[in-house]
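This section describes the prediction task in plain terms. A model, or a person checking by hand, is given the sequence of a single protein chain and must write out its three-dimensional structure as a string of tokens. No templates, partner chains or ligands are provided. The sample shown here is typical of the held-out split.
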Amino acid sequence: MDKDSRNKKLKQLYNVTKEFARIFLVWLGVLLILSVFEVLFNGFTHEFPEHIFNIIALSLFKGLVFWLKWLWLEYLLFVIIYFVSKKAAVVISYVLIFLLALTQLLLINYFNASLLPLGSDLYGYSIADIEQTVGASGSLSIWIILGFLLLLAGLIFALKFFPKRINISGKIALIFPVISLLLLLVNVNSIGSTAFQSDFANNLVLNKSDYFFSASYNYFFPQPEELDIYSDSYIADYESSNSSLVNFEYINESEYPFLHQEQTADVLTPFMNPSKTPPNIVFILVEGLGRAFTNEGAYLGNFTPFIDSLANKSLYWKNFLSEGGRTFAVLPSLMGSLPFAKNGFLELNDKMPGHLSLYSLLKYNNYRTSFYYGGDSKFDNMKTFLQKNAVDEIKDGASFPNGYTKLPVQNGFTWGYSDDQLFDYFLNTRSQLPQNPELSVVLTVATHNPFLIDNQEKYLKLFENRMSQLNFSEEQKATYRNYKLQYSSILYTDEALRNFFFKYQKRSDYTNTIFVITGDHRMPEIPMNNKIDRYHVPLIIFSPMLKRTAQMESVSTHFDITPSILAYLKTNYKLKIPSQSSWMGTGLDTARNFRNIHQYPIIQTKTDMIDFVMGEYHLNGNTLFKLDNNMQEVAIEDEEVLNQIKNKFENFKKRNNKITNGAKIWPDSLIRNYSILKK
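The expected answer:
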């Protein structure tokens, strides 16, 4: 090729590059405008966090990074198509930019509604589950549709008006794809990940498209964890230097990854008066009940006056943790102390491996079992789990007779029956003189987005009164009113629980009943303070059988409840339980002082298992936090501890993957021996 030909080709390339730069610089402008819009949109609809100008600056930076990340690929495709058809390259670019802008707007709206960025958890739900969630939450409102139309009009104007007016040389234009390629060599996702104290602020500055596409890529093309197994910090035995941690001795790891000798200590008997017959046990799982707004010492204020009064008469764990960031994790973790498998145990559906649980073992020991839920028990495959555990009665929304009231309908959807109706239905269908002791689980739903309840005005007034009782300033009240539906639903459920216990006290079986109250996870639609906040829930064990009360600062999780209840029942009522188990939990810790003797993974969403708590440390992704006695946490740099916890987390993942790949959790012989059919 002669010099003139090379110059001609180079000139063509420069012209194509200039055309590309003009179009995609407009996309950059739109992206940065959407970044500022998101901060302001959430500021006006929620709250303006501290350091607002720093937040806007970091948000713009992350928008720029997202623009650069994919620019090399967009440039390559543009050049190829351009040399075939200039018009096609331009039109395809316009369509691509519109789709990207539309996606960004949808993801901004999702974050505004849920205060969580949407990631690969989208792929963990069925179409029916997504339709139910979106419909009931009212996320697609008329304002969003108007926003789409405005975005379309603005993009058409911008792409028609601005590219012609952008004057840029081919050499300068070529710099952008080159920088984009170089960016592949740098990990920019972690920049500013913990720049602010508030988890809300750290999530706000994320570019929502970048987060979604990165999470999607990692979901479909997972990268193996890279650890230096020869480093001193990896080899060091954290457990031996921290003798307070409880460890299992596994029996047959290759065939049963979690099987161990059952040695859970009975820590509940010292608090209980003995009874002649095994007690009834009632679990009340409250949707979204987080410690952030529950009971004395809640950093957002105590919006549950009845639950607080109940905690003062109970065994109360103030630093308790759920095992998941959504409801899908609560039944397997709490009732079965089960591992997560790939996308949460319930997601295995019909392929859930055989297992024992509190449900099945109490049924084997002559308990009658039931589950109550105001919604559809098929959601998240809960019904499959209950059926596999041979639960005697599954009472969900389809079971309610006429005369009970559902939550208000929005967009043709409702989550089901309101909490007070659920409690009444439970009381009306449970005998006061049962022939057998009973295990019942009641899962509420009213404190779920969109937080619409009957007689909402009454609870909005209670919300205003509660803020005054908490001595909020007018400025605080103005901020809290952005979440008035959330707080009014919390006050409603608190009142529904008050009425439930008032009615239950009149029943003849009340004196021989143990109540276990906890949250399935912390409500995310009120801004969260830190990463652990999403899992920080109360645990209350209340019973007329209690001979003394106690408040525990020690950390335990949903994994610990089933082993502890079984240990208590075995000690006092000679229940037959296996000498070996595959519980994830080691049992509740009743120490009054702050400590954590456990080492557990936590699953955030069906596709994100990035949290591990061990001792006083919390690992979230690649960031290490240190916990205090109020479950506040600060990010720390400690490579030795970081690698040790990562090592422990990886060991769990290897065991967990065996379950995903078909390994058994419990031996068939144990399942048969403790099956109701065996009897």
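For orientation: The first strand starts at residue 260 and ends at 261.
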